[in-house]
Prior knowledge:
Elements: H1 2-39, H2 41-82, H3 92-101, H4 103-137, H5 139-152, H6 157-168, H7 172-196, H8 200-208, H9 213-248, H10 256-265, H11 269-297
Helix pairs in contact: 3-11, 4-5, 4-7, 4-9, 4-10, 6-7, 7-9, 8-9, 9-11, 10-11
Amino acid sequence: MASGVTAGGVAAGGVAAGAVQAGGATEEGATGGAAGPAAYKPAASRTAAFRAMAAGAAAAGARLLLGLLVAGLLWEGAVIAFGIRPAYLPRLSTVLAAIAATPGAYFDGFMRTLAETLIGFAAGTAVGVLNGVAFFRWPALRDMLFPVFVVSQTIPVIAFGALVVLWFGNTLLAKAVIAFYLTFFPVTVNTLLGLQSVDPAQVALLRSFGASRGSILRRLQLPAALPQVFVALRLGASLSLVGAIVGEWFGDTTGLGVLLLQAMYAENVVGLWAAILCAAALGTGFYAAVAEAERRLVFWGQEG
């Protein structure tokens, strides 16, 4: 009898709990109309943020194009106004006409150098970030290997490039390795510096909540190191291009470095400036892409 009463009480309690849940659902449904507009605010905020980012990118692109236009007009006007001999500085219109006369050669060279640069840059970024994290986590490893990295950077790129070409031949991989060589070290250094700059109090706070070392690295330390990492990536965008072009000087059939050498040996000043202009366009575009990625990913570091 007692057990039956108890069971009934439990059942009643269950019904009461169900009523409470139903009431909660009813109350939530009743207030849903009032909470509805608020629920749309995050989506609206995301849309506004996306539009702001798109507007910022468009404004940056417009400023870049305006700067290039002004530089082009100054180049053309200075040659005409000061009567500069074409052997020193040809007119910009003449250089552009030379590119338009043989667009295939310049396009193929541009794309080959771009591929070498991107492969070397991507590999250098990945290895540099991993090195920085490893040196931060294991100081003994840093003390052992970091001096070796420093010594490796004192080797002239010409000498290192010759060795790489002997090892890998005149292939795309050889040029990418040289681009990698110039990229990974600054990324390693800046990743390490960024990780070391994290406030220990913030780390201690996360540990007090039971966060693991891996979680702290992913959620605090790596995001905090991103501004420093992107400083190195902007530098690496230029250095990787230099490495790719230098690698092409050791022998290749296509690439901006090949066009530079061919124009130099033929004493073709217009062709030389055409290759320089293509290299400048590639470097500027690559740097702008890295800067735009930084603006999107490190949004908390932006002003205004």
